[in-house]
Amino acid sequence: MTMEPKPSLLRNILVRVFLFCVLVIGVRFAYVVTIRGESCDLGDFCFFSLPENLNFVTGIRQMSSSAIIIHDAVRSAPSKTDGGDLWSTEGWRKSVQFYASVFHDLIAEGFLSPDSKSLCVETPNGEEVFALKESGVPDSIGIYKKGSKPLVVSGKAFRQPFDDNTFDFIFSGNGSLDRSPKPAEFAAEVARTLKPDGYFVVHTASKDTYSFNSFIDLFNCCTLIRSREIDGFDSAMKVIREIVLKKDNEILGYGVKPRGKSVNKCSVPGYKRQLIQKAEPLITEEPKKPWITLKRNIQNIKYLPSMADINFKPRYVYIDVGSRGYGSSIVSWFKKQYPKQNRTFEIYAIEADKAFHEEYRHKKGVNLIPYAAWVRNETLFFEVNQDPGREKEEKEKGRGMGRIKPVQSSGSVVGDVDEIQAFDFANWLKETVSEKDFVVMKMDVEGTEFDLIPRLIETGAICLIDEIFLECHYNRWQKCCPGERSSKYEKTYDQCLELFTSLRESGVLVHQWW
């Protein structure tokens, strides 16, 4: 009697072979998607491909076969979504149709041609790239932090994986430049990879004059060709500003100028002056209760970022002159209340009082300048109030919040006298920031504003500041003693008002601070 092979043995062999094949495919898929950070294509063990009738599905207006060249790579596998094939979704079709119409217009205007080697930056799914190919521009590619082959390769707008002078046409859509954490590097990379006489087209949601001029300043590599508004295709960007730039034949560097441009004369541009017309009015009549009126006035302040977009700036800088403790105006006001539009600011705290220096020792993101802001580099004597814990009480006695006061000599003073190193603030400012940066300054310097502000104007450093919050110290009425003025300061309210008025007439956005 012959023995037949057991069915279970054959079944076990087949099951093991099947599981081994599944394991190989799974490992390969994990490598492609996870390690390489890209979508798989047909050569990577994927089993789905682009529908042959996708051109019909998208709803793009048909062109003659000679006008449309579809790259072979487009027939490869698209990325997948939980809801199915991304390339067949309504959102994809609508997006591609919109960008195709944009590119057709650019071709008609001569900014784009079928021979243009083209790049789309910050395109997660490659709608713009596909629209370019459908519009007859086959040599097109996109970049995004996670690639999605065949349309998009891995890369970032501010760190492009391409050689210099590679592309004839670069496109930035969907407001990607608006959201860029590094707009200066973004601009520099565009200037580097775009060929001379090549075109850079941007779609931005920023439509105010301030942001437009900031954009033009950012791209010093290029010449403005035109700017227009077009209707968007979704609720995220209902109205789009389309800007076309052309790269100059010869440029110095790639988009970023060095800091600290030294000029002794400056003129505030008109687009900044326009913001003053929208600002809150100055308090022209001297407050009888300044501790109430001026403090309440802070609620009326119209911050610059509430009147304009502050996109397209290389850096964002906050300078607190007379910062006192870390928890004073830096934390309680700037970090919590100032509208920063999701931008990260570099913070400089200028404070000469040694009693506050320890607070800044371990504070990340804050640069302490442990000297006194002044009109020149020299050593000064300062009067320091005796009790560091009685600022509120000293204020009621007319001594003010600041605890440091310049004096002529070390004799006949009420408090302790310290020898403090002072520095030329105007020159420091010109060496630290540039006219392209977004700079906010708060100044509370116990009366020396009447020395510092004229110095900033004289040296042209005032034009480097976009917005100033200035506390002006004068012989104000005292809270403790009705009918009596503070003897700590010699200036009058009219002199303070004249200082504020002259700044605004010069085009500087300044606010009355308390």
UniProtKB/TrEMBL annotation:
Where do the TM regions start and end?
12-31
Origin: domain of life: Eukaryota
Give GO terms for biological process: alkaloid metabolic process; methylation
- Kindly give the InterPro entries that the UniProt entry links to this protein: DUF7870 (IPR057192), Methyltransf_11 (IPR013216), SAM-dependent_MTases_sf (IPR029063)
Q: What is this protein called?
A: Demethylmenaquinone methyltransferase
Positions with biased composition (Basic and acidic residues): 388-399
* MF annotations from Gene Ontology: S-adenosylmethionine-dependent methyltransferase activity
What Pfam families does this protein map onto? DUF7870, Methyltransf_11
Stretches assigned to the DUF7870 domain: 277-377, 418-514
Entry-linked CDD domains: AdoMet_MTases
Q: Which residues form the Methyltransferase type domain?
A: 152-202
- Keywords, A to Z? Membrane, Methyltransferase, Transferase, Transmembrane, Transmembrane helix
Stretches the record annotates as Disordered: 388-407
Question: SUPFAM superfamilies of this UniProt entry?
Answer: S-adenosyl-L-methionine-dependent methyltransferases
